[in-house]
Prior knowledge:
Blueprint: E1 6-11, H1 15-25, E2 29-34, H2 37-46, E3 51-55, H3 63-73, E4 78-83, H4 89-96, E5 102-105, H5 110-113
Parallel strand pairs: 1-2, 1-3, 3-4, 4-5
Amino acid sequence: MSVPLRRALAIDDEPAILATFRRAFHREVELVTECDPARGLALVEAEAFDLVFVDYSMPGMNGIAFLEGLQRVRPQTRAYLITAHATTEEIKSAIERGLAAGVIAKPWSRAEILPLLRDD
């Protein structure tokens, strides 16, 4: 009996990063990717995801603003912020407020993210 794949959403304004994410994890999760954080919010409003990975620095809406929206519509969704700026006060505050389960530093590795894809 096969176990259904978990559903994950990855949001980053760089298509190459999303392509790498797809290649790295397509066997472990049912992965949806999005370059526009506003469209990503529309996706989480319309359907549930087990996990969300969101880049911090994006035009129009940064990852913190996305996480605030996610918290309003799907507070039970486990989310991770991906950033090259892991020490900013805004990111620390987001973790303290429970908006994200953790921070993943860029450049990330498959070995670092793989355990996060498994059930708690």
